[in-house]
Write a structure and sequence with these properties.
alpha/beta, Metallo-beta-lactamase, Chain A, 7-stranded mixed β-sheet, 14 strands, about 35% helix
């Protein structure tokens, strides 16, 4: 044991088997909200072609739920690309078994907490676990200032780790701000483009399209129903679209008001309809885009008692392709 260095010990702990929580007896089993890490790792093992993993599928900055906040990772030719960094992204990335050394780029759709709150921690913890210097980050302004401020705040933490484990300090995070529609980046694996979506008062809020060599994946980001999303996703293999089931939202907020929450029902619902896309409109957009597969995610409200069929049915009235209700750690 004395020959085991502290860094080797750290690596050993990181590679320790993952324990999957077992639902309590009598818990609702309507719709399992996540895959197990074992399922995810099995689906990625020796996988051929580009894979999408849904790391978090819940809308809103609400902690303590069975679903994590919004995040995704795409794996292609050994390179990983993360889109959005809601709370839980770092843990669920690790649960996929994808090495942090594979992480090449991070993309942010907009600056709401359920999409960016764990961006900085992903950088620091990812670096400790093997992420290389020079990771590239893309997203709306003021992403460069946010990154510089975070790195300044955690400089001492980075310096302590670098000294203790003889690591090259995390000093290079390359940030490119995206404020308008158009091309974002291109490397040997993928070409990425963006559109500006409607998510007031957040400006700009972005949707992204990733064109890999073998498949194309489009993400709506958070948005009201928008023709531009259908155009962006035209002919894509996969469209991941935010989804709001209005009857459940109405029931939820009425319950909150009854408990004393100081909000007016009409004002709250007006906000939700101005910022998000009802399930029926998600189906219309996917049908117009002609995508092969529609993935319902960023679920509003993220309540486990809503069945997959309930999520799927409104969209299926208009979209005739494959509809997948997103689960945390699901591989597509």
């Amino acid at each position: 044991m004395q020959d085991l260095s502290r860094r080797n010990l750290l690596a050993g702990l990181a590679a320790a088997p993952l324990v999957t929580a077992v639902p309590e007896e009598g818990a609702a089993q309507t719709a399992a909200p996540r895959w197990t890490p074992q399922q995810t790792q099995a689906a990625l093992k020796d996988a051929k072609g580009t894979k999408l993993v849904l790391l978090g599928t819940a809308a809103g900055p609400v902690p303590g739920r069975s679903r994590e906040m919004t995040s995704h990772v795409m794996l292609s030719s050994g390179a990983a690309y993360v889109l959005d960094c809601g709370m839980g992204v770092t843990d669920n990335y690790a649960r996929t078994g994808i090495p942090f050394a594979a992480l090449k780029s991070i993309f942010i759709t907009h600056h709401h907490a359920d999409h960016n709150i764990e961006y900085g921690p992903l950088l620091i913890v990812g670096w400790i676990q093997g992420m290389e210097n020079g990771v590239q980050v893309y997203g709306p302004p003021p992403l460069k200032q946010m990154t510089e401020d975070f790195m300044r705040a955690y400089k001492q933490t980075v310096d302590f780790w670098a000294e203790d484990f003889h690591m090259t300090p995390l000093t290079q995070v390359k940030v490119q701000e995206v404020a308008a529609a158009g091309p974002v980046m291109q490397d040997d694996n993928v070409k990425v483009s963006a559109i500006v979506v409607e998510h007031p008062p957040v400006k700009p809020a972005l949707g992204y399209r990733f064109d890999f060599k073998d498949r194309s994946i489009a993400f709506s980001g958070d948005t009201a129903p928008l023709e531009a999303v259908a155009k962006m996703a035209k002919g894509a293999d996969v469209l991941v679209h935010e989804t709001m089931y209005v009857p459940a939202v109405e029931k939820y907020i009425k319950g909150q008001i009854a408990k004393g929450r100081p909000v007016k029902f009409e004002a709250f619902m007006a906000h939700m309809k101005a910022d998000h896309t009802p399930s029926e409109d998600v189906g219309r957009i996917a049908q117009e885009a002609g995508v092969k597969t529609l993935v319902l995610s960023h679920l509003t409200p993220a309540i486990d008692s809503i069945s997959d069929e309930t999520w799927r049915e409104p969209a299926a009235k208009y979209f005739k392709g494959e509809i997948i209700v997103g689960k945390d750690l699901m591989v597509i």
